[in-house]
Amino acid sequence: VVTINSLPVPNPSSDSPKCVGTTLSFNSVAGMSSYAWSGPNSFSSSIQDPSISNVSIAANGTYTLTVSNANGCSASATTVVTINQILPPTITPPNTLVVCSPSTLTLTASNCAGTVTWSE
């Protein structure tokens, strides 16, 4: 009797894109006998859904997941991760910096990703 077992389908994914300093999480198919993740910056893990805390730009790139099922069959697949650098905003003041109360001063922020909050 010859038994032909089907290959597992790894289906790796992540919550990319992420910003530097956040946590990058990976996901894969459940129910496999083994998991072997590898990627940039010497990343490796043997758990189903690993994560990288305080992620850096060095985590950018392609990650490979190899899984084995109960029949001993193995398969690999990849997922691409993007990590974005958070750049400080550039603040441009007007030509005149002397303002008398209760007047206002307008500052312009550029190179911003997300929300900018002004305070005194």
Give an overview in words.
The chain is mainly beta. The protein has a domain at 13-84: Sandwich (Immunoglobulin-like). Helix content is 0%, strand content 36%. The chain is built from no helices and eleven strands. It has strands at 13-14, 18-19, 24-27, 34-39, 43-45, 51-52, 61-68, 74-81, 83-84, 90-92, 108-110. The strands form four sheets. The protein has a four-stranded antiparallel β-sheet, with no helix packed on it. Strands 1-3-6 form a three-stranded antiparallel β-sheet, with no helix packed on it. A hairpin with a 3-residue loop joins strand 4 and strand 5. It is rod-shaped and about 90 Å long.
Can you describe this structure in just a few lines?
The chain has 120 residues and is an all-beta fold.
Topology:
Elements: E1 13-14, E2 18-19, E3 24-27, E4 34-39, E5 43-45, E6 51-52, E7 61-68, E8 74-81, E9 83-84, E10 90-92, E11 108-110
Parallel strand pairs: 2-9
Antiparallel strand pairs: 1-3, 3-6, 4-5, 4-7, 7-8, 10-11
CA distance, first residue to last residue: 80 Å
Q: Which percent band covers the strand fraction?
A: 35-45%
What sort of overall outline do the alpha carbons produce when their principal axes are compared?
rod-shaped
How does the major sheet shape up? 4 strands, antiparallel
The SS-based structural class is: mainly beta
> Based on the structure given, which CATH architecture of the domain at 13-84 is correct?
Sandwich
Query: Which percent bin holds the helix content?
Result: under 10%
Read across the widest sheet, the strand sequence of neighbours is: 5-4-7-8
For this structure, what is the CATH class of the domain at 13-84? Mainly Beta
What is the mean predicted local confidence, pLDDT?
A: 88
CATH superfamily of the domain at 13-84: Immunoglobulins
What's the β-strand tally?
A: 11
Query: Could you name the CATH topology of the domain at 13-84?
Result: Immunoglobulin-like
Q: What order do the helices and strands follow?
A: EEEEEEEEEEE
- Our count of helices gives 0
Rg (CA only): 24 Å
InterPro entries: Ig-like_fold, PKD_dom_sf
Protein name: Ig-like domain-containing protein
